[in-house]
């Protein structure tokens, strides 16, 4: 494992996958463990799956469009009700409220062949460690080579903001970001299918 990546995981304060959190119980609106995932078999490990860290995600519709075109199942994970299209390939998952509950749910299912859409850097680090493809809404892939520096920069900026030395945030989401995301997600699906995932 790259030393920067290993150091980034230590900085995050969280394990790559799993943890001590118990299994999530179903919510009233939908199951916390989607139907069909409770008894996964070895063949399921060759399926491409998408997990959207849905709170404040600006590219949910774009993800639906590309994933449905490729025939890929998408899970929209949030801790409150969220409207999703009526399509068998798109499933809403509502997890209990609490810090990092949605992140933990996604990270525990990340593996090679899964695609995670998130802006959360610690979550991205956990999923990259598990072998998942991780993509930001702006179309930037998180990789083993990049996540260490990204996480270190994020932690530094948090410290500077806490000290009042930095008041600005990231640049606003733009049309070019949407286009970059669509292209990057399509390329990930093509690459995974060439690698034998379906």
TrEMBL record:
InterPro entries, sorted: UPF0178
Classification via CDD domains: PIN_YqxD-like
HAMAP family in the cross-refs: UPF0178
NCBIfam families linked to this entry: PRK00124.1
Similarity comment: family membership: Belongs to the UPF0178 family.
Protein name as it appears in the record: UPF0178 protein GCM10007276_16500
Source organism (scientific name): Agaricicola taiwanensis
């Amino acid at each position: 494992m790259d030393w920067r990546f290993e150091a980034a995981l230590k900085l995050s304060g969280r394990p790559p996958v799993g943890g001590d959190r118990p299994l999530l119980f179903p919510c009233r609106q939908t199951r916390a463990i989607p139907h069909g995932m409770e008894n996964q078999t070895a063949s399921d490990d060759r399926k491409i799956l998408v997990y959207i860290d849905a709170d404040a995600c600006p590219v949910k519709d774009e993800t639906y469009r590309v994933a449905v075109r490729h025939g890929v199942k998408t899970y929209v994970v949030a801790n409150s009700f969220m409207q999703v299209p009526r399509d068998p390939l798109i499933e809403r998952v509502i997890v209990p409220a609490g810090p990092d509950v949605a992140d933990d749910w996604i990270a525990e299912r990340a593996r090679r062949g899964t695609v995670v859409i998130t802006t959360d850097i610690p979550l991205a680090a956990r999923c990259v460690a598990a072998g998942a493809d991780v993509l930001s809404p702006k179309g930037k892939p998180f990789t083993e080579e990049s996540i260490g520096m990204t996480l270190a920069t994020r932690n530094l900026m948090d410290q500077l903001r806490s000290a009042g030395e930095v008041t600005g945030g990231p640049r606003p989401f733009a049309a070019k970001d949407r286009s970059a995301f669509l292209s990057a997600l399509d390329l990930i699906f093509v690459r995974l299918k060439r690698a034998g995932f379906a």
